[in-house]
Write a structure and sequence with these properties.
Layout lengths: L5 H6 L9 H13 L5 H41 L3 E5 L5 E4 L1 H7 L3 H4 L11 H17 L1 E9 L5 E11 L5 E8 L1 H15 L9 H18 L2 E9 L2 H8 L1 H17 L6 E6 L2 E9 L2 H15 L3 E3 L2 E3 L3 E8 L6 H17 L5 E3 L2 H20 L5 E10 L5 E12 L3 E3 L1 H11 L2 H21 L6 E5 L2 H5 L3 H12 L6 E6 H5 L2 H14 L2 E7 L6 H6 L4 E4 L1 H5 L5 H17 L2 E5 L4 H9 L4 E3 L7 E2 H10 L5
Parallel strand pairs: 11-12, 14-16, 16-17, 17-18, 18-19, 19-20, 20-21
Antiparallel strand pairs: 1-2, 1-5, 3-4, 4-5, 6-8, 6-11, 7-8, 9-10, 13-14, 13-21, 13-22, 14-15
Bound molecules: ligand C2E and magnesium ion (MG) (2 copies).
Amino acid sequence: MVILPPAIERKTVPPKQFDSKENRRRSIAAALQNLDLNQDQKARLEEALAQDLAELEQLGRQLSLCRRRTGLLEQVLENISEGIAVTDPQGCIEMVNTPFCGLTGLDREQLQGQYINLLNRHKEAEENFVLIFESLENDGCWGGEMSHQRSDGHQFHQWISVSRMDRDNGRLVWALRDISQIKSSEEQAAYLAYHDSLTGLPNRRLFNDRLEVAIATASRKKQRLALLFLDLDNFKNVNDGLGHAAGDELLQETARRLRGKVRDEDTVARLGGDEFIMLLVGIQEPEYAAVVAQRILDDLAKPFRLRGRQFYLSASVGITMFPDDGSKAEALVSNADMAMYRAKSAGRNNYKLFTPALNEKVQRRMSLETALRQAIGNQEFLVHYQPKVELAQGRVVGMEALVRWERPGHGLVSPGEFIPLAEDTGQIVAIGRWVLEQACRQAKTWHDQGHHDLAISVNLSPRQFQQKDLVPMVTETLGASGLDAASLELEVTESMVMSSVDDAIVTLGQLTDLGVRLSMDDFGKGYSNLYYLKHFPMDTLKIDRSFVRDVATRPDDASIVDTIINMSRSLGLKVIAEGVEDTDQLRFLRERACDQMQGFLFSRPLPSDQISQMLASGTRLH
Ligand code: C2E
Ligand code: MG
Ligand code: MG
């Protein structure tokens, strides 16, 4: 059944019943009998009437032919697979066929009078409709693909062709064909062209595409990429020993394990055989790639279960970095491959970075990390103390606790080397807690020995500062040591508190509520934001060593130190200069009435027993 638009309905001639030819002739003859006409007139009238009748009969035949054709067209419209809609030139639906209703999931009543774009109203489709109407305006037709949503939410792809009927007031005919199946087989074909059929991982082709895109993005964003080339070490044994089907299973399980060790945005691809390649995006340091490689090796080292048997596997991994080692995709893949061969020749079951220097750096850091992990348990840390001296009297008023690592076979490692690493790995939280415990206990011992007003300063790291349990941890440590909270000073840095100012204000407030004092370490090196300084409950500013170093020789450093001292005074804060090494610096600080100093001039950081001797002897600064 076709819904005809009102305009067409009006034009339709209502069906009319004609008499048979003979009846008509008879009724005309009867009518003529009743007319007062001569023979000639009658003959002419009869002829004219016969002519009209013939024309009428002709028209009748044409009309029935026309009706038969319309009926046929209706049937065609109903039986073709395309959904057809006729709209006015603006796209308002006037009629649709049944397949159109089937495709859209809407019935005629819902469709009629609606705009054709009711099928899809998302932004992209709206833009498409604008383009369609532009083409119709210019060319009178349009054809293309669009995805639509059926009323039940099912998404389907369709091919739409639209044409304008110029002879019919510019009405538009929209023909929709469901091409979802074609699309899905196209997608299937595309999937197979870009994926490895055994593991479902991207294949070399897709990997190369992604690598090109990643290189372009990383260059723009000035980021690093890492490529990890992995080759299984003893895969041949599985294939030869257990057969190819078992080998396939092993490759599938390997693929799963690899995928599980990288982030969603990274790519794991199978290049063929037992070779895999991984692309890690947006990474900061080569060390991260090494961490991932190690994680993968550890995971592959876990037993595989094949045909009821346990099987052990290892792999060799080559790592290359963009842009450090190269900027072209091909060169990077070949670098990673070469590095993988180096890992193989170095005994398998390990990873190697392409650049020897980078390799050495990463290996050093990784072994440092492993050693650091064991250091706490092995009690390899020590605390040294550096005196803080009050400038007016030259008296020792406090000690700063500075951690040291006695690494077996390496001597004393300075915090500058391992604190940043411990910060990255999170180990700083445990180390910092240990230092705090030691320092509080040591300070309590000195108090008990008679140095009652000696303060102890402990550095806090950014990670520690973010710990939810920082305040309870400090409370607990103070309680366990028996040290008075007022004797403890915590040193924080500007960057630490500025990363989340509101949280920092709360935490610092809770610490001062405990009675602990706060000092801003390395002041001047960071933001030096006075507005926030006013809101942080600080007791002391510690002038960064870099300004103190040249204070007696460089006027700009002198004026910075001068400014910090004056500012501290006006904010009611104490000020201390760190890194004082010579008497010129000391003189400058004394002249400016700086409160305290700390530095090699008076004492280097020393073990607690040496500090105890110093305190006992009453050493002073002159
Ligand atoms: P910091 O807190 O600014 O500590 C002062 C650093 O300056 C110490 O280095 C100290 O030995 C050094 N120093 C003191 N006087 C002088 C001097 O006159 N000249 C020179 N050139 N240096 C001087 P150290 O012990 O190597 O510590 C470096 C940094 O490591 C510390 O800087 C601190 O940020 C961090 N750190 C040390 N111990 C710990 C700790 O237990 N926890 C945390 N989170 N960080 C710590
Ligand atoms: Mg400090
Ligand atoms: Mg400092």
